[in-house]
Write a structure and sequence with these properties.
Strand content: over 45%
CATH topology: Jelly Rolls
Structural class: mainly beta
Distance between the termini: 19 Å
Number of domains: 1
Largest sheet: 8 strands, antiparallel
Helix content: under 10%
Length: 116
């Protein structure tokens, strides 16, 4: 076995400082975000952790594929050229690579993520 096993612990209660403003805001209500337990696996080009965002509307420019499990909150994500997708606690989502669009966080959203 190569590499180390990455484990995200207590994702529902991990303390996250949501003190960074969204990079590409689209509303007057600015979302604040943060992450915790970010772990890199460079040998396979992946990373994982827990991410949280307060309500607001902003663009997603992430180029990686992403698998996420929504832990709490809800939002609507609208991919460029696609239909809006509502995501709520308990949902899982797979974003394809180069998936750009608009996050509309309605209630503080917490998710685990795997970028690859």
């Amino acid at each position: 076995m190569t590499g180390k096993i990455a484990v995200v612990k207590k994702a529902t209660t991990a303390v996250i400082a949501t003190d960074t403003a969204a990079k590409f805001p689209l509303s007057e209500l600015i979302a604040y975000q943060g992450s915790v337990q970010h772990q890199e696996a460079p040998e396979i080009g992946a990373s994982t952790g827990v991410w949280e965002s307060t309500p607001g509307v902003f663009r997603r420019y992430l180029k990686n594929r992403e698998f996420s499990h929504i832990i709490s909150g809800w939002c609507i994500f609208t991919p460029d050229g696609g239909e809006p997708v509502e995501l709520r606690a308990g949902d899982a989502v797979l974003f394809p690579e180069n998936c750009e669009g608009v996050w509309d966080i309605k209630e503080t959203l917490r998710k685990t993520y795997l970028l690859f």
